[in-house]
């Protein structure tokens, strides 16, 4: 009788352990692909830094490139555009243009409206966001709301006179 109780207890312990091991393996088998799917894909990692050749952007021209899933506007500004942003008089978020560019003739900004994330359109001097009417000047500074702040300047640096890398600083 005593042996049957001991044997039953052993069997129960064995079954509990086996159930735990199998259950644990099942959880691990389920979680590993899930966790792996949360890692950035190789193409996303590849876009963490984007090299841009500026030579074929004419004065007054704008190129939009994709960086980390966002549009980035690169503007080869004209003397008129540079002059138009020389003061902060109209800016609602008054950061001097000189703090937003590395060379006066080149503006690099993330093309995502700081209100609710629409992509503004280039119109005349600056951009207009047609979702709710915000306007930005040619420094990417907000001059009419509801956008609360300027277009973001991404990290970037000039590798040479005509080439930049967006995504890191030198
Ligand atoms: S998203 Fe641009 S003004 Fe609202």
Structural account:
The chain has about 170 residues and is an alpha+beta fold. The chain has two domains: about 40 residues; about 120 residues, 3-layer Sandwich (Rieske Iron-sulfur Protein), CATH 2.102.10. The strands form three sheets. A four-stranded antiparallel β-sheet has the order 5-6-7-8, with no helix packed on it. Strand 9 and strand 10 form a beta hairpin. It is elongated. The N and C termini lie far apart (about 80 Å). FE2/S2 (inorganic) cluster binds next to loops.
Largest sheet: 4 strands, antiparallel
Strand % is 15-25%
* CATH class category of the largest domain: Mainly Beta
Task: Please give the order of strands in the largest beta sheet.
Answer: 5-6-7-8
Describe the protein's topology.
Layout: H1 2-37, H2 42-46, E1 50-53, E2 62-67, E3 70-76, H3 79-84, E4 106-110, E5 121-122, E6 127-128, E7 135-136, E8 142-144, E9 156-160, E10 163-166
Antiparallel strand pairs: 1-10, 2-3, 3-4, 5-6, 6-7, 7-8, 9-10
The structure holds FE2/S2 (inorganic) cluster.
FE2/S2 (inorganic) cluster binds at residues 113, 115-118, 129, 131-134, 146-147.
In short:
The chain is α+β, with helices and mostly antiparallel strands and 170 residues long. It is built from 3 helices and 10 strands, in the order H-H-E-E-E-H-E-E-E-E-E-E-E. The relative contact order is 0.14.
